[in-house]
What we know:
The chain has about 375 residues and is an alpha/beta fold. The protein folds into 2 domains: about 80 residues, Oxidized Rhodanese, domain 1, CATH 3.40.250.10; about 260 residues, Metallo-beta-lactamase, Chain A (4-Layer Sandwich). It contains 15 helices and 17 strands. The two termini are about 35 Å apart.
Amino acid sequence: MIILDVRNKEDFSRFNVEGPFQFDIMNIPYFDFIEEEIVSVSKVPQDKPIKVVCAKEGSAQYVGEILVNHGFENVSYLSGGIKTWGNLLAPKRINSQSDSYALFQFIRPGKASCNYGLIYDAEMIIFDPSKNIEFYESFAISQNSKIVKTFETHLQADYISGSKEIANKTGAEIFAHNGDFKEASFQYSTVNDGESYSVGKDGPEIRVLHSPGHTPGSTSYIVDNKYIISGDTVFIQSIGRPDLGGKVEEWSIMLYDTLTNKIMGLNGDLDVLPGHYMDWNEANSDLIFSEKLAYIIKHNVHVYNMDSAEKFTEFIKDNMRKSPDIYREIRRVNTGWLDVKLDEADVMDLGKNECTAVAYNKIKG
């Protein structure tokens, strides 16, 4: 197929449809079709199905009609516009079908992020839900389960969390660390380092590992002693950046301590389930983003083997880049102190994350 994106060139360059498989994508702005219809149409090949994408849907529908009028036969457009792509969640089961519980990775390609669902005995727990509440509700129904809890790994800055709305709609209990959420306007239950929770009466254990650095309250969750849902602390090709709060030295020291004294002391056979990915090459053959902790530490040896917090902090400073201005507002939304309308939330939420600490080439060496 051919993805025909008719947004302006600036918006297209900032954020566009992508995935694990190769396909053709081209950008011909909507206004080009208005001003130079014949020239613009001549640029579009007719040998493949055409999928038209725009900001909100209307422009894509209009361009699709132009193409059909010029003899194109297989033309469709993305309903809802680019925000539909930005909110998409693709579920992938992580563990074996023979296990008593089901663990799912919900991949959000428009954000290069992952969140997770754990189901046992008709109860569902969600880790770091996005604002696509309809997806979680329908998924829970498809699994004959009810959403009972959400766990936050940290105060998200790059996307709007769905925990508050899920709690309001389903009565689910929110769990989060005081280090990030003590100023939150909504009710939540505090998680503490070393505590354990289970799904149902005898389901898999969820162990809390306070892993500060990306944020002071960053927390990882070890599931069934097999998986670690690492939030924005450990990524497959990187680590979470500790400068988003404007306290790069203080938070870098915390992150260094977390990596050296907590993460490196864990069982290397744990499967890391990260909050973000940098490239589709990180996905395995089942298109799941997961890797053994021992491999990640070895692959990112330049980060994990630094012998002092000072060197680590300088390394972070050398790789710092400007944090998106919108992150400040998203944090206010996620603590409940800023209410935004749905359309505004969609705009705030669009765009790839900027949560990795360092450029991939820097780590690779």
